[in-house]
Structure formats: C-alpha cells, structure tokens
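Narrative of activities, Objective 1.

The group set out to show that a structural description can be obtained from nothing but a protein's sequence at a throughput compatible with the screening campaign. Below is one input-output pair from the validation batch, recorded exactly as produced.
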Amino acid sequence: MANCKKYGIPFGHYAYGVFVSVADAIVEAKDFMKRADKEALFLALDVEKDTVASFKKKSK
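Output recorded for this entry:
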C-alpha cells in the first residue's frame, strides 16, 4: 500500500469470507472494513458457493 500511495497507483483490498450465520457474516464484513485502508478504491469480500450453500442449510 505504501508504494501504491507513493506512486499514485490505485489499490484495493481482498478478503476470503467464511461465515456460519447472518450475524457472523455481518461481523466479518465489518471487521474487513475496519482493516481496510481508507484510501482503497475497492473492497472485495470473496464468498464461495459452498459457504453460502452450507449457511442456507443451517438456516432452515
């Protein structure tokens, strides 16, 4: 990030999301946003199909 800022290169942040409930997903997303540099142009929270499928099964 430091060199991106130094040379004016746009940057963003990526995180792999794993959660087991809506409440857990919210906590994880908020934590990711807290860790992200405020100058990042984008945030990408990767949620895989198997995580979502597993969550849906537990929610029923």
